[in-house]
Amino acid sequence: MTTGKINVSVENIFPLIKKFLYNDHEIFLRELVSNATDATLKLKHLTSIGEAKVEYGNPIIEVKIDKEGKKLHLIDQGLGMTAEEVEKYINQIAFSGAEEFLEKYKDSAKDSGIIGHFGLGFYSAFMVASKVEIITKSYKDEPAAHWTCDGSPEFTLVASDKTERGTEIILHIAEDSLEFLEEFKIRELLTKYNKFMPIPIKFGTRKEKIEQKKGESVAEEDKDTIFTEVEVDNIINNPNPAWTKQPVDLTDEDYKDFYRELYPMQFEDPLFNIHLNVDYPFNLTGILYFPKMSADLQLQKDKIQMYQNQVFVTDNVEGIVPEFLGMLKGVIDSPDIPLNVSRSGLQADSNVKKISNYITRKVADKLKSLFTENREDFEQKWNDIKIVLEYGMLSEPKFYEKSGDFILYPSVDDKYYTLAELKEAITENQTDKNGKLVVLYASNKDAQHGYIEIAKEKGYKVLLLDSPIVSHLIQKLESDNENLTFVRVDSDHIDKLIQKEDTQISKLSEDESKQLKTVLEEIVPKANYSVQLEPMDSTAAPFIITQPEFMRRMKEMSQSGGG
Ligand code: ADP
Ligand code: MG
Fold first, then answer.
1. Can you tell me the distance from the alpha carbon of 413 to that of 449, in angstroms, rounded to the nearest whole number?
2. Coiled-coil regions in this chain (predicted)?
């Protein structure tokens, strides 16, 4: 037997990393901005615990395009690196300085928001650059260092004369990646991935009008304002997005503003929001919104966005957010969701399952409190939210368990019942021969108008259940409530209901009714229609002709052996 060590040479691995590390080349920018953010947050932490005796100030990160030079610059004012640290952190592929930092400052830095963890992010630069330079000056009193690498495993490291603290990364953009020198492209990427990162990111400048009141000496001109244009840093991100704040510090208006910030094209206000905030047994923050249902397909494309430490990761939250909440909007942010794993891997992850269950529970709790705090308002929103919730009842057992608290069953005349209230309301006179409670419902108010009127005449409650998945829901409710049966208002069952009070029933005797029916049946074409007698003193039609009734009669006929 022979044992040995597989010989991995960097020459072979490097091109693989370049090619396959990430299938999306554009994420190089996310990675480099994340590193610049980490470097700044680390410095913030070190100054706060007194380990770095420098002024933290108001550091920003700058992204700059040099189109002629075909270079992209990323400049931060973070903690920088000494030459020794460059050797340690940059020259060792798959060694994460971020993880090392978090390990070292375990207790104090766990909430510092540091992003990196695979030790591979930096190398994503080589997906778009033929050469990368790092010019960096540590906050420690040591000379600056200048590292250069052209994508082969050889690098050079020399001293540099950089004097300001921080790191500048220079990407020499490769010929096949020149799109990353376009201003609109970089702006698009920064907006997509970095819009809510915690350190301000400058990309160019913009003109800002500032108001200047004219002197008060001339009364007439008092009201006039002069606008002067000044050039200011163009900061592309909001470092303190709403979800990172405490719910008590946010007003309704703040939540709506944040919704518009997330989805600038959505003009309708959301119906309500759910602020998620948990740090045990996993870490998750976020805000989910129930949107007003939009007919606009473009707007429906706005999805829940997933972040890790304020870095955008994806808007495919399949497996993380329960499927029935797919129509919701908003953000979730969790460092505990494994990325870079397949969807099926995600589903198998126990944290992810817990997160999904947590979201279900929070949504159910919020619905319950909305319902109990302001029932009228909740009823008004019902039409916009019912599909999501009904689908939730069918697809998510944990949600179904809680749904009795807030799921509503509207009647044709806009009264809303919970299931318990409904049962209460129909015990009086809606039972069938087997003693089951019969829930009458219409699926289309206009088409079934006549039947609805007749049922109402008889004093029956008729629900309006018109969402597309209602038949599944009914099945579920019937199988879980043995004493309940749902009957559509135009079906043949309605005449089988047993009323407690018989007063309004037809004045004809049974025999007379039979005779009348026989007469009527001779007139209408038997093959397609059937005849049903109604109470003669009713204001509704004295008899109705229905098709479903024909089916019932056919059945009775076959049962009685007739033909
Ligand atoms: P990770 O972020 O997972 O640690 P990266 O490959 O992205 O891995 O970066 C490797 C290390 O290089 C970082 O942990 C950090 O120590 C160092 N580094 C990268 N960029 C910077 C920067 N802008 N300023 C200071 N250090 C940096
Ligand atoms: Mg990183």
1. 12
2. none
Per-position DSSP letters for 296-326, written without gaps between them: -HHHHT--EEEEETTEEEES--BTTB-GGGT
Judging by beta carbons within 10 Å of its beta carbon (0-12, 13-18, 19+), is residue 200 exposed, middle or buried? Answer: middle
* C-alpha–C-alpha distance, residues 109 and 49, integer Å: 10
Atom of ligand 1 nearest to the CA of 169: 23
- Whether 82 lines ligand 1, by a CB cut-off of 6 Å, is no
Residue nearest to atom 18 of ligand 1 (CA): 35
Tokens of 85: 């640290």
Give the E-state strand segments of 76-117 in sequence order.
Answer: none
Give the global pTM. Answer: 0.81
Q: Are 240 and 259 in contact (CB under 8 A)?
A: no
Give the DSSP H or E segment for 355.
helix 350-373
For ligand 1, whether the C-beta of 35 sits within 6 Å is yes
CA of 38 to the centre of ligand 2 (A): 8
pLDDT (tens digit per residue) in 215-241: 555 555 555 678 889 999 999 999 999
CA of 83 to the centre of ligand 2 (A): 18
pLDDT in tens, 362-419: 999 999 999 999 999 999 999 999 999 999 999 999 999 999 999 999 999 899 999 9
Let me know the angle formed at the C-alpha of 531 by 527 and 533, rounded to the nearest 5 degrees: 170
Q: How far, CA to CA in Å, does 92 sit from each of 84, 115, 172, 409, 438?
A: 12, 18, 21, 62, 72
Sequence-distant (≥ 6) Cβ neighbours of residue 277 within 8 angstroms: 246, 247, 284, 285
Residue 8 — left, alpha, or beta (φ > 0 → left; ψ -120 to 50 → alpha)? beta
- 3-class DSSP assignment, residue 422: helix
